[in-house]
Amino acid sequence: MAVFFYGCVTLDGYLAAADHSLDWLYETGDASETGYDEFYSGMDVTLMGRRTFRELERAGDPAAVYPATENYVFTHEALSCPGFTAVSMDPVELVRSLGPARNIWVVGGNTILAPLLEGDLVDHLIVQVAPVLLGAGVPLFTQGEALRRFRLEEVRRYGQFAELVYSRPR
Amino acid sequence: MAVFFYGCVTLDGYLAAADHSLDWLYETGDASETGYDEFYSGMDVTLMGRRTFRELERAGDPAAVYPATENYVFTHEALSCPGFTAVSMDPVELVRSLGPARNIWVVGGNTILAPLLEGDLVDHLIVQVAPVLLGAGVPLFTQGEALRRFRLEEVRRYGQFAELVYSRPR
Asked: Cα–Cα distance between B40 and B46 in angstroms, integer?
């Protein structure tokens, strides 16, 4: 089992603007320039927050975006979307319950990533840094104060994105 | 004239830990692995805050660290260090007063970088990302809310540091 964060962030560390818009991201370039397809084809499970799921719904059909994975949404609301399951347990508890031999992608947001980082459960961080400053927004990293060291595995460039690939030292 | 930020930051965007320590940085690797000497040889002026200067003093002789540049410290206190001048004006005002044909390095910290970013005066951002999360500390970016787009020029790797090189689009 391995837990991945894979996603875009601004140079000043935001996942989204203060109004949750991703316009800065869409204007930076095309996701097809990145290794996304290869990454996604290796995943078994996605985890996301209610807000990330609602953004997916607003943009179209969530099941078409994540067709090959089991998808869990942390929410107390009911969902009616094939392939997506509402869960209300703690992200750490869910990850432990999924058992071994699963590749789990933390799609977003920070409220799911933070407890997994605090539980030392994040094995890989794959971050595409966009050449943009926002000055305010939804931060990627909101885990508690503690020095956590990763290992830089690779630095790649996809157009205007710098991709940084990290693993948790064992 | 060009204004540069050049410096290390954690993956979660901190210049220093909450207690201002840089232990996480010293443990990541050797600065001699980077292009620092070449960068510094192109600079005419450094700008830094009082806290950065006091850290330099604590570590040894500031004049030995920045021997070839005119060095300005934003402080209301008097300084007695050759090559270092205390200034109490606004960073934007100082940068404008230095005149053309000078390369200015913003050594730190965020209280100097933020007004220069807000004034659209930062031409180059050269950031070495350390493979470390701190969860709290002194953030690099504290400028006000506004979308500011840079251009990714280069992505380099120096040991465990990923260096991202940006320029301001003209």
From this structure: 10
* Count of beta carbons in the 10 Å neighbourhood of residue B110: 18
Measure CB to CB from residue A133 to each of B135, B143, B161 and give the nearest one: B143
* Spatial distance between the Cα atoms of B39 and B53, rounded to a whole number of angstroms: 20
pLDDT tens column, B80-102: 899 999 999 999 999 999 987 89
3-class secondary structure per residue, chain B: CEEEEEEEEECCCEEECCCCCCHHHHCCCCHHHCCHHHHHHCCCEEEEEHHHHHHHHHHCCHHHHCCCCEEEEECCCCCCCCCEEEECCCHHHHHHHCCCCCEEEEEECHHHHHHHHHCCCCCEEEEEEECEECCCCEECCCCCCCCEECEEEEEEEECCEEEEEEECCC
User: Which letter, b or e, does each residue of A83-103 get, where b requires 16 or more Cβ atoms within 10 Å of its Cβ?
Assistant: bbebbeeebeebbeebeeeeb
Q: Which amino acid is at B10?
A: T
Residue A11 forms contact with B (CB below 8 Å): yes
User: In angstroms, what separates the C-alpha of A30 from chain B's closest C-alpha?
Assistant: 15
A17, A141, A162 member nearest B155 (Cβ): A162
* pLDDT confidence of residue A31: 54
Prediction pTM value: 0.94
